[in-house]
Design a protein that fits this description.
The complex is a heterodimer of chains A (54) and B (404).
Chain A: H1 2-26, E1 37-43
Chain B: H1 2-7, E1 11-15, H2 28-40, E2 44-45, H3 56-66, E3 75-77, E4 88-93, E5 96-104, E6 117-119, H4 122-135, E7 140-146, H5 149-158, E8 164-167, E9 178-180, E10 183-186, E11 194-202, E12 208-217, H6 226-257, H7 269-273, H8 277-284, H9 291-297, H10 304-307, H11 334-338, H12 344-348, H13 356-360, H14 373-376
Parallel strand pairs in B: 1-2, 5-7, 7-8, 8-10
Antiparallel strand pairs in B: 3-6, 4-5, 9-10, 11-12
Classes of the chains: A alpha+beta (54), B alpha/beta (404).
Chain lengths: 54, 404
Amino acid sequence: MKTLLFRILASAVLAAVAWLLLAGASSPKGATLEPDKLIILSTTDVKGKTGPCG
Amino acid sequence: MDSIKAGYSQVVLVDNGGFFDESEMRRDLSWFLMDVMKLLGYDAVGCSEKELRFGVGYLKAQLKRTQLPMVCANLYDRKSGKLLLPPYVIKQVGTVRVGVFGLISNVLDLGPSRDSLRVEEPGAAAKRVVAGLRKKGATIVVLLSQLGKIESEDLVTAVDGVDAVIVGHNVPLLQKGRMIKNTVACYGGSEGQYVGRTVLTLDARRRMATGDDETFILGPEIPDRKDIAVLVKGFEDTFNEKLRKLEKERAAQEAEKATSGTPDHYLGQEVCARCHVAEAAQWKATGHARAWQTLVAARKEAVPECVRCHVVGYNQAGGFKELTLTPGLANVQCESCHGMGTQHDAYGSTPRKVTEQTCRSCHTKETSPEFDFALFEPHVNHKGVGTPQPLPESPMKKQLPAGK
């Protein structure tokens, strides 16, 4: 009984460690900011301008 | 752009085309802007008839040199029957797979490329490309449209599956975008003074749940990226010198032709000031009297479409030609608003009224978005009654017209 409990606990710990390692590897340098957002920045019809006239 | 990227991990940067200058004299700006876009990390750029104005060979050579990802899904080489450019790009942006495709109008003249290229009907191309992008796993589809406002809106109404459309080609600037059926439409302003920010909220499948869009003026509050600013200054110094030389040559040729056959011409404010002393003194305190300096500060003193509104009678009889030839006609002077000095007799007895339309010939929505006639006019009207309200400090503080 004791061996069975030990085995279950060991499996759980191993699974937790594996999950943490995988999670760490999949988020490069910190968490994704606003993961449920996609931002599209756009410019249009620039017509040769590098800036306003002044 | 950097500040947006600091707050959000999933950002796509696009331009929907129309960035080549229309003047042959200013062709250098085309390759320079391509270089800058590449440096800024544009993920995709669209194509308009402007990008074809120097010929297909020129565009292809610059694309090869810069490796800028230009897309267009309905522009074909007549001879080979193949697409001139890649129809789309697919980018993995964080957890989102984004497909970006471009469309050009099939009712426009392609200029020197008209005989070598063919444009497919945009709706048919859109249906095919959207289906293809979805098949390749794109969960978000963005259209870079050079179809104009009405055609772009009609297209996304008829074709399902476009999540966002960047609307270009002579499109009115609207601060707030709008939903067209299931598509967020962005109507960013032209001439590099604005940036559109479209925010898509994603569901668990990384598809668009909701969308919102707003266009921002790139005012002085938003600092230039230092490395790009250095690059722009270096380019503009060389380019302006080249333009100045060309402009001087052209002005000298015109001066030779003389304007003696034209009875009416500009005189300059010094002539007006001989009688209108108080008005001239008041004018000296206005921004109009420093208009040339603001152009110099912005390094745009050799750009004809800018010069036009910072001098008197640009390239007209007796008007400003070039600073060394006509130094007395720099700045916005009396005749800019009141007309040619030699016509004085004609309207001297009945003063010519300066209306909002007079101001609007230069203070357009594009060049002067903060302009409000009621607020600005008291600063220049010579009446000297009371203290005019202070002018807005920056265009960023003024709201743009909202979408309807």
